[in-house]
Amino acid sequence: MKKILQFSIAFLLSLSFASLQAQQPVDSLLTVRGFAIAAPQVDEVDRFVKFIDEELAPRHVNTLVLRVDYNYQYESRPELRDSIALSKEDVKKLVVAAKRNDIRIIPQVNLLGHQSWAEDLENLLEVYPEFDETPDIEMPEEYEWPNKDGLYCKSYCPLHPDVHDVVFDIVDEIIDVFEADAFHAGMDEVFYIGHEQCPRCHGRDKAELYAGEVTKIRNHLADQGVELWIWGDRLIDGKTTGIGMWEASMNNTHRAIDLIPKDVVINDWHYETAYPTAPYFAMKGFHVVSCPWRTPDVAVKQVNDMIRFKDQSTDVMRERYYGVMQTIWSGAGDFMDAYYEERMDEQRGDSTQWNTFKRMYDEINLLSSE
EC number(s) per UniProt (predicted)? Predict the structure, then answer.
């Protein structure tokens, strides 16, 4: 097994460093040129529309993933709204701006995992505590990692009989208001699944639980002609690859990759090292998007790797290499402030998410002009 793994990694790395074949137009090389960020707050909407017009569109960004979660005035489930949330009018400003610039908007609501952050429960478990996969693990007054409970983020129980009635209401509403043909369910960093505290999930196969939830969400969306996007970390074997517990799975959910529908789009995020895992997803039959964050050199490598993988693939495999998507993990307002001020990081210098965005799209433009 070790020799097979070493050969596989060497093969993937050889693809990364192989020379480019004759360049095609960038549109055919990178079907997805993406940008993922939190949806703006109410007082940031007009400024974000300007950012779409003046920064995303000129770089030919064609896919915008907006993390909405509970930042919308849901009518179907008003109890889940944030206290200050986007109105339908606010959302339509974003939709119009995206259409004007031929950008596909994909709204995101975190499903399954990420139902808490630091010391706070997210709205779903705050309002519906019965959905909690780990009800006996209390939220700390001051969060730290690691901790005795293994608490990173809470999860909802995928087998609770009422949970999907609630979450699908907000999923359907957010798809409708954004006029979207794709939806991002998150589903990354799920550490709590099949937990011993859960009377429904305890003792069940974690890969089957994870695959069951992905499939249930996918089937619900497919009935409406909507595509499902998820992060890919839970589908990579963190132990065998050595990638570890964050960008891959150490709790045996990775086997779900052979149990979920092949039309799910995988967002393959790696932030400090450009691990060449995109071919793994493509060989399993999935469309895959490589996703950097705050390290410019990693983003540039991921762009070049994606093009090389596609160039050197069979016709069957080539179209599965969908493209790249810059991920932003601060609020839209904070990001725009730092972006326009060209801030440096005290520890990381120009290794910032805003500089990574610029460098990644500079590289795409350079390759498209060759």
Answer: 3.2.1.52
Task: Quote the CA–CA distance of 245 and 239 in Å, as a whole number.
Answer: 8
Q: How far apart are CA 10 and CA 287, in angstroms?
A: 22
Note whether residue 254 is domain-resident: yes
For residue 84, give the 3-state DSSP assignment. Answer: coil
**Rounded distance between C-alpha atoms, residue 67 and residue 327, angstroms:** 11
* pLDDT tens per residue across span 68-116: 999 999 999 999 999 999 999 999 999 999 999 999 999 999 999 999 9
Number of folded domains in the chain?
1
- 5-21 b/e with 16+ CB inside 10 Å = b? eeebeeebeebbeeeee
Does residue 17 lie in a domain region?
no
Distance in angstroms (rounded) separating the CA atoms of residues 233 and 271: 12
Q: CATH number of the domain that 288 lies in?
A: 3.20.20.80
Residue 107 CB coordination number (10 Å) = 25
- Asked if residue 85 belongs to a domain, the reply is yes
In a domain, 22, yes or no: no
Q: What is the pTM of this model?
A: 0.92
Residue type, 8: S
Q: What is the pLDDT of residues 3-50, one digit of tens each?
A: 444 444 444 444 443 333 333 334 567 999 999 999 999 999 999 999
